[in-house]
């Protein structure tokens, strides 16, 4: 086991425990926010595992997760809009923590990979993970006021 795999294991253990706790013991808004948190934890973990095992296919999985994870959160937010209208989740703390962790993981893995096409792919994946997390969390919290008002 190298440092990359150990870091992925720690990230999955801590993030997975938070997700399981939020999903199993909480009201609907917390459970929907935990779905977004699961995506935000699994993506950087896949990037660390890709570096640890030297498998570029794991970066492809992280890219796919970065594209589909926020879409799943937005679908849940749309389908459960009536149930979430009374009590909107405000996942500001977990959102910014996972965005920061994602940025650190992408920066460290990019430093490990070095310049080239793989680094560009990592940067795109990281931008999608962080941006998707922020947009999905904001939509769960009620969206952007300017967009709602027209």
Model description:
The mean pLDDT is 86. This protein has helices spanning 3-24, 28-53, 57-79, 81-84, 92-113, 117-140, 145-149. It is elongated. The relative contact order is 0.16. The protein is an all-alpha fold. It has one domain. It is 84% helix and 0% strand.
Short summary of the structure?
The chain is mainly alpha-helical and 150 residues long. The protein has seven helices and no strands.
Strands, helices and their partners?
Blueprint (H helix, E strand, L loop, with lengths): L2 H22 L3 H26 L3 H23 L1 H4 L7 H22 L3 H24 L4 H5 L1
Helix pairs in contact: 1-2, 2-3, 2-5, 2-6, 3-6, 5-6
Radius of gyration: 16 Å
Structural class: mainly alpha
- Give the SSE string: HHHHHHH
- Helical content (DSSP H or I, runs of 4+): over 70%
Largest sheet: none
Q: Please give the count of helices.
A: 7
How many β strands by DSSP? 0
Q: Based on CA inertia axes, which overall geometry fits?
A: elongated
Q: How far from one another are the termini?
A: 53 Å
Average pLDDT level: 86
Number of domains: 1
Bin the strand percentage. Answer: under 5%
Low-confidence stretches: none
């Amino acid at each position: 086991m190298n440092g990359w795999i150990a870091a992925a294991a720690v990230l999955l253990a801590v993030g997975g425990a938070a997700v399981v706790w939020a999903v199993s013991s909480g009201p609907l808004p917390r459970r929907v926010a935990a779905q977004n948190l699961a995506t935000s934890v699994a993506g950087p973990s896949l990037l660390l595992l890709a570096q640890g095992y030297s498998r570029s296919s794991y970066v492809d999985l992280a890219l796919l997760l970065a594209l589909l994870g926020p879409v799943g959160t937005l679908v849940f937010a749309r389908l459960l809009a009536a149930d979430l209208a009374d009590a909107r989740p405000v996942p500001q703390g977990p959102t910014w923590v996972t965005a920061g962790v994602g940025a650190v993981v992408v920066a460290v893995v990019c430093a490990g990979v070095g310049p080239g096409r793989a680094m560009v792919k990592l940067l795109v994946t990281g931008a999608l993970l962080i941006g998707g997390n922020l947009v999905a969390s904001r939509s769960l919290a009620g969206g952007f006021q300017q967009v709602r008002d027209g």
